[in-house]
């Protein structure tokens, strides 16, 4: 019954006439799931275009989101997210300020958006051990000092994001995370008010969703074990976005997900139903959205660092000597992205 509601709503979303869901709205979202290649960065990039006065933070050492914003990113000379975090972990380093850059300066498609970003750094691969060392060093302190020191470390990214939001007069933030929990992803979870979780239509993504929920709920998890009992500031799940969805091509099937999509839709729905208290409204129907396979449009969008919203059906591009075109379902994908964006801010 309820899966039907979700599927019917997708039909209305595709046609841009779905009724808004009254979800609570938050300021800081982390885009995460503990699996690679499922669409975290692609979704972060596109959502960052659809909002204004937004700060995008790249906490993934691969730096894919940073590269979307700046083709020169891998030259590696910007002040970055690691420079913001290190002073909280290593004594003696001065704190960074005004780290965020105007995205429009390096990506022309963002030139009329008041949106900023904080670049990543390859050195974030070292952050997990630096973070654990810093946390362990608090162990020898007396209880009240220990709590203060731990809080400063765990909420370092949150403190820095809030400072950057205020310094740049911004009011929305999306944090793209890596597929690994330790390090900056962990800090992103402490910083976030709520999570956006892409899940690809495959079994590994379902496993990683279950793992994510375990980390969120298990008192012994790496995430929860450092939080004081009276400070269980656990981010809500705002939505799961099932990515790479496909639809039936059988004649007469107007709005029927294909078998694989339907199977994984049901699996995600069942997991959400079992974990209602983690959802920002407790009703799983309100928190599950579908995003189609972007096909050629996705390839052109990534190749040109151009948001999907700006692509037009029929546009073509030669990529790796192959002619790729913006497929006719691009408007459907744009409407799906816009609806998702409207449920966040
Ligand atoms: N909805 C989609 N339809 C088709 N292709 C997609 C979609 N979303 C992402 N992709 C493609 O899938 C690949 C991985 O996407 P992306 O980099 O966004 O994943 P990720 O979860 O951020 O990966 P990682 O964990 O490595 O950072 C890219 O080639 C991207 O273009
Ligand atoms: Mg990524």
UniProtKB/TrEMBL annotation:
<dbReference type="InterPro" id="IPR027417">
    <property type="entry name" value="P-loop_NTPase"/>
</dbReference>
<feature type="domain" description="AAA">
    <location>
        <begin position="27"/>
        <end position="225"/>
    </location>
</feature>
<protein>
    <submittedName>
        <fullName>ParA family protein</fullName>
    </submittedName>
</protein>
<dbReference type="InterPro" id="IPR050678">
    <property type="entry name" value="DNA_Partitioning_ATPase"/>
</dbReference>
<dbReference type="InterPro" id="IPR025669">
    <property type="entry name" value="AAA_dom"/>
</dbReference>
<dbReference type="Pfam" id="PF13614">
    <property type="entry name" value="AAA_31"/>
</dbReference>
